[in-house]
Amino acid sequence: MDTFILLYLATVNVLTFVLMGIDKRKAVKRAYRISERTFWLLSLLGGAVGCYIGMKTYRHKTRHQSFMIGIPLVIILHFMVAVYLYYSLS
């Protein structure tokens, strides 16, 4: 079970990171974009770290206050849930 969770988290974070790069490239070319709702959904489903690293790496969505404040808050929330589950299930 632990291996599955780690594999899932790695996959969703890499996917979110890659999509941030794709969306940045599309933004520069003024092409059809990936919706912000998609990034929020992926972040809430465990990809917040990938989203944050993508924001910093590609300098993408950094002018959006909702992303600059919200994504770190989601990371903190995920950490708190993980700690709670770790101690409550041990």
From TrEMBL:
The chain crosses the membrane at residues 6-22, 34-55, 67-87. Signal peptide: none annotated. Pfam families: DUF1294. Keywords: Membrane, Transmembrane, Transmembrane helix. InterPro entries: Cold_shock_CspA, DUF1294. This is DUF1294 domain-containing protein. It comes from Virgibacillus sediminis.
